[in-house]
Design a protein that fits this description.
NE0471 N-terminal domain-like; globular; alpha+beta; 17% helix; three-stranded antiparallel β-sheet
């Protein structure tokens, strides 16, 4: 339509993670949580609790990095969309 602008949806960003049982939950800045079985990441599933809890945000929240086990997981990857 003339004069109508369409904007792309806001990129989902993470603000943190939590672990519960055999699951990783990524906490998004819009209030959603994305869950992932730890079995999907060999590095995280074999990491100890201290290594799992040592994480840092990457790309201003586009993902999470675990330096002790050299693992990166992006929000887009969990959603199944291209980064």
């Amino acid at each position: 339509m003339p004069g109508t602008s369409i904007t792309a949806p806001k990129q989902a960003l993470t603000k943190g993670v939590r672990f519960q049982g055999d699951m990783l939950y990524m906490l998004l800045d819009d209030g959603r949580e994305l869950g992932m079985p730890l079995a999907w990441s060999e590095r995280l599933s074999s990491a100890n609790p201290e290594q799992r809890n040592n994480w840092e945000l990457i790309g201003r929240g586009s993902g999470v990095h675990w330096p002790d086990v050299d693992e990166d997981i992006s929000v887009a990857g969990l959603l199944g969309v291209p980064d």
